[in-house]
Amino acid sequence: MKQNHKNSSGNHPRLFAQWALTALMLATLSGCSLYGGPKASPMAPSPAEHIGCQEREIDQNGKCVPATDNNAGLFGQNLDPFVETSTITEGNLGFLAKPKTPGIYPGVVMIHEWWGLNDNIKEMAKILAKEGYVVLAVDLYNGQVATDSAKAMELSGAVQKNPQAALDQMKKAVQYLRTDEKAPKIASLGWCFGGGQSLQLALNDTLDATVIYYGQLTDDKAKLGHIQWPVLGNFGEKDTNISVASVESFKSALTELGIQNQITIYPGVGHAFANPSGSNYAKNETLDAWQKTVDFLKANLKSTTQAKDAKDAVERPDSEKNQAKDESEDKKPTPPVVKPTPKPVPPTSANASKKTFAITGEPFKFLMNGAEAPVLRVKQGDTVRIEFTNTKGFHDWVLDEFNARTPQLQAGASATVEFVADKKGTFEYYCSVGSHRAMGMKGNLIVE
Predict the structure, then answer these.
(1) Distance from C-alpha of 168 to C-alpha of 187, rounded to nearest angstrom
(2) What is the pLDDT of residues 27-40, one digit of tens each?
(3) What is the second-level CATH architecture of the domain 30-45+57-65+74-312?
(4) pLDDT (tens digit per residue) in 310-346
(5) N or C: which end of the chain has fewer CB within 10 A?
């Protein structure tokens, strides 16, 4: 294509000028900021931005077309035996991909590039679903998909003019995963235009993890302070659209706010390095970034047991599962009637009583009477009442050994949970949101 560019400028100056003007117009409306400095507003891009396609995607007439390659072939996965898909037509919400094995899986809102919800994004949704997630690739273009730069400019420009409509659509996707799919935890993930939208969703809704591939950023702490969960970002050192300075400023702001973050700037690669059809494509960095993404989502959306069960559930095709089921039924033609085991009655104690603890939660710590990570002491047989109030961020209170947990609460909300401490020992309570537990939001209950 470099040869075509040169010929266009040498033999057809008017055509080249027209192409340059088109590129400038596209720059105004694209979703990734060329001069994405630290103070760039996520919803209001600066006047000079990239045209949204690579050299290989620009034809000799000066138009660019979306990638026809997809990453499914890159990662070499056989998806159909494991993943089922559907289109959510109501409100043109998007494309849903999830494991064929019935179950409750964490959710991911996947956000497309400026081309719209095309086959490449759908394939990526299927790839991620095979890892044990229900993935909703949200449609921000009301069912339309761009096949050339002019249409992409029109569609992305409509989002820039009415950002609230796109935000509302992404929030509907989150709500769908929570209510219809019963997803216990949810993340956002997007590339370029979608990367910037992934951050926007994080700034305006409650999630458990956020992934940004070379999307537009901000270092506005007043806005970023809403985020109370980990953030993963993958960027290129040679990206002239999202500068290294803006990435470092974004990372610094997150760190100063106490928001766990994993930001990678890959040396020597440019913008859209994960696009397999573009001239900036970097295979090794793409594979590394994807593995980071998979590991990050696993760490923040799944417990160790959940991760293993979800992965095991989707790694066998239905034929194998049905065969195993048939063999099991052959061995046990008449399943025994299982009677529920009565719960052991805790030892009686003359001192058994009801203990109430008023605990508050704020970013990455529990407090009681001003003390951080308070130790709760009770006697075996005591009834324990936890009165939990969340003062800032998004938190819950969980104690696995006694099957005790509050709902995940918004700032200012309260909840109460009661249980009987029917066994002795030291037990850890914690916040299950994101990686808050790993960041120190935990404490101990001691039953004597």
Answers:
(1) 16
(2) 333 334 332 333 33
(3) 3-Layer(aba) Sandwich (3.40)
(4) 445 555 444 444 444 444 444 444 444 444 444 444 4
(5) C
